[in-house]
Amino acid sequence: MKTYKRGDTMAGGYFHSIRLLRFQCQGCVTCVKACPTEAIRVRNGKAELIEARCIDCGECLRRCGYHAIVAETDKLEETEQFKYNIALPPPSLYAQFPPETSAAAIWEGLHRLGFDEIFDVAVASEYISLEIAAYLKNYNGGRKPLISCTCPAVLRLIQVKFPELIKQVVPVLPPTEAAAIYVKNEVMQRTGLKSEEIGVWFIAPCPSKNANIRQSVDVRHTQINGSLSISEIYGKILKIMGGEIQPDKKVTAGSSYGMSWGSYGGELEAAGIENGLAVHGINDVYDVLEQISLNKMRDVDYVECSACSGGCIGGPLTAENKFVAEKNLKLRLSIMRQNEPDDRLATMAQSMICEDFPKSASYVKKLIPRPMMQLDDDILEAMKKFEKMEEVLRSLPGLDCGACGAPSCQCLAEDIVQGKANEIDCIFKLRSSVKRLAHGMLELAKQIPIASEPEEELLEDGESDAST
User: Fold this and answer.
1) Exposed (0-12), middle (13-18) or buried (19+): which is 99, by Cβ within 10 Å?
2) Distance of alpha carbon 282 from its chain centroid, rounded?
3) Residue 310: what pLDDT?
C-alpha cells in the first residue's frame, strides 16, 4: 500500500485516510447508508468515494462487514528516517490498558519501540482547556452555543454540511497540534537538532487525525510528521512493556484533567464548563449541529463534539472495546486523583510547567466552508440543473431505500442531472419501465399477422414426405 506524506492530496484536491478496496467490495450499500455526508455511492456493484464530501469520520470503516474499507496510517518503520523521535500518546492509548498497568510501563514500551521522548497530549489538553474557558468568559454578543474544535471529523462535518456554524467554533488549537508545536521547538532548543531531524508521531485512535496531518483544517503548519494507529502500537507495546523506565528517556505527563479528554465530557470537566453539552457519535453530533443551526440551543454555553461514540476511546483504530476502555479510563482517573489536590486548577498547575507553551492565536487556521454540492461552475447552468433535479426528484418514489446505490432519492436525482446515474438505476423506475416494455411487446405481438398454411396442405406434404 502506498504511504502518503504531508502535503499529498488525492485527485480533486483532497487527502483521505479512508481507502475503498474495490476487489473486496460486495456492493451491499451498508457504507452508503451509514455515511453522514452522503459521500459514498455504489456504481457497477462497487463502492465509490465522493472525495469532496468525505470527512474521514470512519463510520463506513466500522460498518463494512467485508473489510473493503481501510484507514491508512504510517508504519513504525518510518521513524527510522529521523535522528530523534517523539511519541504523542493521547489519553485513549492509556484507556486500552487496565488501570493497574502503570503509565511508566506504557512509557517504557514506547521507548523500547524506538521513541526517544514522550509528551502526553494530556498536558496540551490542560493548556487548551484554559484557553477555551477564557474565550467563553470573554465571549459577548454572538450566537451560542460555542462549539468545540478538537475533533477534525466534526470540523469537516461543519465545513461540508453546516458552514453557517463556523463562526461559533472556538478558535483554539487541538491539543495534539499544540503539543507537537511545543515539543518540537523545545527539543530543537535543547538538543541543537534541526527540525527535519526530529520526528513527531501521534498515536491515533481514528482516521480523521491522519487526514488532518496531511491536509489540516485547523492549524497553519502542522509539526506532526505522521500518525501510528493505536491498534498497531497497542499490540507491540504488550509484547515488550514492563520494567523500569530508562533514566535517559524524557517523559512529560499530564494530570487527570488532561487525561479525562479521552472520554466524552472530559473537555467540559477540564475547562470547568458547567452549562455545556457533551455529544458523541457522528449521527448524534449531526443531529445536535442541526439543532444549533436552527438556533434551538441558545441556552447552552458550549458543546463538546466527538465523532466517535464514547469520545476518542471509541475510535475505529483503537484496540479495546469502547465500554471496557471507558471503564479503564475512569478507574485510572480515580487512581490519579487520589494523589492530586482537590482543586481542578491546582491539579492542572502541577503539570503545566512548559515554558512558552504556544498560544492558539499564532497558529490556528481560519475554518472555511467546503462546498459539497456544486451542480455547475456556471450559475445559470447550475440553476437549470437544479430545476431538472427537482423534476427528477418528484418522479422518484421517495423511499430512500438505497437499492440504487445512492443513500437517498435526492442524491440519486443529483447524480442523474450530473450524468453519473440513470433514472432506471431506481428499481421502482426500472420495474415500471420493464412493465411498460412488456405490455408494449404484448400489444405489438397481437397486431403482427401470423401466416399459416391450410391443414390439408400440411397433411399432404407430410404424406408425400413419408412416402418418399
Assistant:
1) middle
2) 9
3) 94
Give the C-alpha separation, 278 to 154, whole Å: 13
Contact 236, 113 (CB under 8 A): yes
List the Cα angle 326/330/336 in 5-degree steps: 145
Residue-wise pLDDT for 287-315, tens only, equals 999 999 999 999 999 999 999 999 999 99
Report if pTM > 0.70.
yes
How many CB atoms within 10 Å of residue 440? 10
350-354, long-range: CB within 8 Å, 24+ apart, which pairs?
350/255, 351/122, 351/123, 351/126, 351/253, 351/254, 351/255, 351/258, 352/123, 352/126, 352/127, 354/123, 354/127, 354/182, 354/186, 354/252
Q: For the chain, first and last CA: distance in Å?
A: 76
Give the CA distances from residue 372 to residues 37, 39, 75, 157, in Å, rounded to whole numbers and listed in that order. 9, 9, 32, 10
Residue 177 identity: E
In the predicted model, what is the mean pLDDT of residues 88-112? 93
Q: For residues 203 and 226, give the distance between their C-alpha atoms in angstroms, rounded to a whole number.
A: 9
Q: Is 401 exposed, middle or buried (0-12, 13-18, 19+ CB in 10 A)?
A: middle
Percent of the chain with pLDDT over 70: 91
Say if strands 117-119 and 84-88 run parallel, antiparallel, or are unpaired.
parallel
Phi, psi for 338 (deg, rounded to 5): -65, -25
How many whole angstroms separate alpha carbon 254 and alpha carbon 370?
A: 35
The rounded distance, in Å, linking the Cα atoms of 35 and 55 is 9
The rounded radius of gyration (Å) of the Cα atoms in the chain is 29
Beta bridge pairs of residue 119? 252
187 falls in which pLDDT band (50, 70, 90)? very high
- Max distance between CA atoms of the chain, in angstroms, equals 118
**Residue pair 322/309 in contact by the 8 Å Cβ criterion:** yes
Packing angle, helices 379-395 and 409-417, rounded to 10: 130
Q: Are 38 and 22 in contact (CB under 8 A)?
A: no
Whether 1 shows a pLDDT value over 50: the answer reads no
Judged by DSSP in three states, 118 sits in strand
Going by pLDDT thresholds of 50, 70 and 90, the confidence category of residue 11 is very low
Whether residue 347 contacts residue 254, with contact meaning beta carbons closer than 8 Å, is answered with: no
Q: How many CA atoms lie within 13 A of 369 on its CB side?
A: 10
